[in-house]
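Inputs:
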Amino acid sequence: MMGYDYMHRVYNFSPGPAALPLPVLEQARDEFLDWQGNGMSVMEMGHRTASFEALAAQTEVDLRELLNIPSNYKVLFLSGGARVQFAMIPLNLLGDYGTADYVDTGIWAEIAIKEAQKYGRVNTVSLATWQTDPNAAYLHYTSNETIDGIQFHYIPETKAPLVCDMSSDILCQPIDVSRFGLIYASAQKNIGPAGLTVVIVRDDLLDRASKLTPTVFHYKTQAEKQSLYNTPPTYSWYLAGLVFQWLKKQGGLKAIAEINHRKAKKLYQAIDKSEFYHNPVQPDFRSIMNIPFTLKKPELDTLFLQEALQAGLANLKGHNLVGGMRASIYNAIPEEAVDALIAFMRDFETRYG
Amino acid sequence: MMGYDYMHRVYNFSPGPAALPLPVLEQARDEFLDWQGNGMSVMEMGHRTASFEALAAQTEVDLRELLNIPSNYKVLFLSGGARVQFAMIPLNLLGDYGTADYVDTGIWAEIAIKEAQKYGRVNTVSLATWQTDPNAAYLHYTSNETIDGIQFHYIPETKAPLVCDMSSDILCQPIDVSRFGLIYASAQKNIGPAGLTVVIVRDDLLDRASKLTPTVFHYKTQAEKQSLYNTPPTYSWYLAGLVFQWLKKQGGLKAIAEINHRKAKKLYQAIDKSEFYHNPVQPDFRSIMNIPFTLKKPELDTLFLQEALQAGLANLKGHNLVGGMRASIYNAIPEEAVDALIAFMRDFETRYG
């Protein structure tokens, strides 16, 4: 609409920071210099102005509606990402318990465990044996492992409050928030730009914090101040709000889940049907957000990535720890992008398989 | 250039998040959907991609050049704002010392003191008596108090390493970085959007951290990883880079300092010459960034703000703790904005004084 050359946009399969919905970016660009007649960018606006407070409040209302968050949960918009919460969760929640259960699902769970061990005892729970500590302050798990391409498709049963790192699959489908004690998610996959974390926390968990918890990350303090105790990452908050409105326009989480499952199913089918591509994850644990795959001829990895980029398919390189390829197909990735990827993969296999 | 209606832009005297230079905003808007032919927004780009790493490195180079940062200092780009550092500075620097000196300059210093007391002993130093602890790990001061409008125009002499919160006056004029152990500044005044903090730290202070320091805020870890240990607030980092380039185009800090001193001098003169406006700060400590002033008839405060806004002069309300008015005139505020404010103040005084 402004003469901008959209031909340059690629399909971006980045694991995070990740693609944002095009209509969100277009709106943000159009109001970049003047938000709603305020004569300034959202990022130039004080966080305690009436305009920003209204934006912040609406963003929370929209997220509550999307996730159907019960009224006995607070929603916090905090700075930093999930790794900040890896420290702040034990600081806020261990209280006098001393021990927490951490499910070892993969690489991200292991980083969370290592950080929690600074602040208390960790009982590592394996998916196979599931031996929890009867006195654990909480049980922590990672609902989706971006690097391994593993996702929980059920909510674990626990006695201890359930704490979930949903950084890479929040908002990809409806969930029953009432089953959780705390949900947290860094923004840079399904919410908005990096530098923001959403924390959804049940009221009874707000007041357990260690005195060593930095005040800006003290859940009770931030809950009492509507996350405005300090200057929050205001521009990321605004973009998160636009993403939530976009999701509502798509029909909410039920509608986006249908699309997400269809996208993932297609891609897994294309991989499974082929002799050339391989995904090692058990079907029950396959992620609908991050789909790693390997080529039968790993010596072709570089060529695959080069030709993919020429075809407008970017950021398909797998994580260094596992190699191969990975397609991250978060909410903002349209179905056409997955179709284009599958077509390219078939063509590449035909030529080099 | 894109048919955007600039008539709506106001002069924005917000204390922070604050105005950004218009050319920076225009460039960011123009490349919002496609940064340098990558086919995506900077905010959609992985932080470990070659493109982002080059941007990040260039941003550091530009900041080093602007501030003439010696090579034995590391520059970190961390998430969160100054309040996060209020906790992270004692965690990283107290080490076995146990005590730190904190100069009590005003409201922000007091918040920093309260947070530091969670992690060790604080010896509060008053400007009048200047009684420091001979064994202090460091001496902390706030170079500019946004609420009180107080600024240090000299660098204190200390035995302990000097730690300075420069959130609201970094880059406003040249400083001798070599006099400091550590300088930190949240972005939302003179650097970029909220959610980013710059930390400039001397090498010998990197390895004193308490084991309780969250890894993402551990200076040594982040220094070793070029601040990419975790996903940083990439978009704010990019905008900081554009601001640094803009500053270089203005002629660097010497040139911007001349403008800043001229802007402040004009406004203080207008206040001092008038019988209607008043600034209570001693001339030697007056801030060139934040200029609070009161009206002789405080019952006219609301009218003053309303008429100012109608004249395109926004966010002049003083902080609730001190009342009255405040003009924050950071680097991005052009001299014309100060001229317009002074003209408005004179006119208002003529009509109501």
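Chain B touches chain A through 70 residues (CB under 8 Å). Flag for discussion at group meeting.
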